[in-house]
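Suppose you are handed only these lines of text.
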Amino acid sequence: MALMLLCWMLFEKNKAVLEPVYEAVRQACQAAGREPIPILAISKNQPVDRILPFLKAGHRWFGENRVQEAAGKWPNLRLQCPDLRLHLIGPLQTNKVKQALKLFDVIETVDRPQLVLALAKEWKIERQRTRKILIQVNTGREPQKSGVLREKLAILIDLCHTHSLPLTGLMCIPPAHEDPAPHFQLLADLAHTHNLSDLSMGMSSDYPVAIAHGASWIRLGTAFWPPI
Ligand SMILES: *Cc1c(COP(=O)(O)O)cnc(C)c1O
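From them, the structure of the protein bound to pyridoxal-5'-phosphate can be written out as follows.
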């Protein structure tokens, strides 16, 4: 009995971590006239003991930006929580493709032909975890940022189709100090043009705008884990 009470108290406490963020996202969806959308908790740089409360509270969608870091944290967490879902949201090197296919349910950051070829070469659906991929678009044309430029997008999409990769959408990170709205609109337009349904866009500072522009899911880091 005491143990049950303790478990219940822990669950409630863990839920309290998530509830304010869930509620803010619900409100943003409502303001945009949309049903609630999934939230990826971006757990990069977060140790396992700061992720566990999220799992205990029932959160299941997560994102990491480095293959190596994810490999150290997530295989164990998956044993405890087989139904969790992990997205790769950072750049992928071709020599890490094999590892990435075993770790991530979704790879959001395909951005160049060699990477498509490397994915196609290693793709073995029955022996990997990855079920779909997205292409990252460099909507702000920032030289330091990964992502394909919009004029090269069609070629990359064709290459994915040629190799029968399950490409379902697009992802972007707008320039830090610009109005994100035109970037989200551009991403939505490009996805529409190419018949792609998933839009990964919106972070802690701009997710209401992304939701208003049709985000399929948002990626929140600091909203969940404020910098100490
Ligand atoms: C870190 C990161 C996020 C989360 O950003 P916050 O501003 O902390 O919400 C989202 N997307 C990508 C690609 C990231 O690297």
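What can we learn from it? The pocket of pyridoxal-5'-phosphate is lined by residues 42, 44, 65, 89-90, 173, 203-205, 219-223 (CB under 6 Å). Residues 184 and 226 are 24 Å apart (CA to CA).
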